[in-house]
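FIELD: query
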Amino acid sequence: MIVPESCYMETFTKLGNMGSRSTMVTDDLLAAIASKDPVSGHTHTFYRYPARFSPLFVREVIRHYSRPGDVILDPFMGGGTAIVEALALGRKVIGVDLNTLAHFVSTVKTTPLSKYDVEILEKWLADVQGARRRGIAEADEPVRNLPRHLQKTWADLMAQAAWLPVERQRHFVRCALLKTGQWAIDCKDSIPSGSDSVKQFADNLRGMIKGIGEFVSSCQMQGVQKSKIRQNRLLLCRSTAGLEDESKLASVAKPTLIVTSPPYPAVHILYHRWQVQGRRETPAPYWLAALKDGHAASHYTFGSRSTLGLDNYFRNVEECFGSVRKIVARNALVVQLVAFSDTESQLPRYLAAMEAAGFAECNASGDGKDRVWRSVPNRKWYCNIGEEQDSSREVVLFHRPA
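FIELD: result
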């Protein structure tokens, strides 16, 4: 979960008795919670999705609370960290997110490339670098707040990517462009030239080819053949609310572990925009991924930061986890990371919403002193930058069906 990667986590609290219906938190898991290691490995660096998990934390949760072949659910999958880790550990996985960008990135991160794909991409990249075709893209409407020289450069790359013969190759290139675009403009003071962005794009594409190979190798070490990896995942682009009516779940076993990080109440995070030289927002990520984005920020965060928005937030928590309760195994475990803009007032409401959804907390005594917390200093929030706020601390919550 987050940015900057160099200061991922700072502290954790280990507290005593976990109660009769508790879930044991081992020293290894506590160490994973407290780890300051930057996000790396597999395909995790394909795109820095806002408020993302630590792969190490997710990995340890999956290792501790599931076995190979179990079904893992992330009902708010974001950039797909839990999806990647579950597959790499030989589990089956269901990922849900209503953001088309999250679905796109998670899909690319977990779609293996064949030897043929790699050869085609390498030849294509060599051609792009050796004989740059400038001005080949059709004139397009300006993308709001995207520097015009970068839009022209990237549009030419996308036009050339359209010549690739297989869809997964084209999507892979667009994901590399997403990574490049984020590097170039998101929360940056200076903007690179078009030629510099092309050089970075080439480095990104090569690194991503290597990363997808590492991911496939990890799956194979767990006995999952490359051709079977996609069969072990189900990625849904939709709201978690009403998930019990999803027909695609009929052929999937009930999840036994839910590992997730839902939107945080009244914490402003841009899931659907980049910021260019200050707070000028651009929808460039959707343009680069060839996706439509017609929603306001509150659509992705369960509600605005107003009093009414907070009420909507907790209603959404209850509705979404109520649907989760209907599709999981009777002994399923929910492990989630949550932060609050005002912990004292919002944590009780969050726990009440989970209870109303049919889940009971299983790691805290009545006073809640045995919960595990971690601090995330210098987190890249998009508001109140530099100000101390509760959202710089996350709590790890454990629940089981009541």
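FIELD: remark
The chain has a mean pLDDT of 86.
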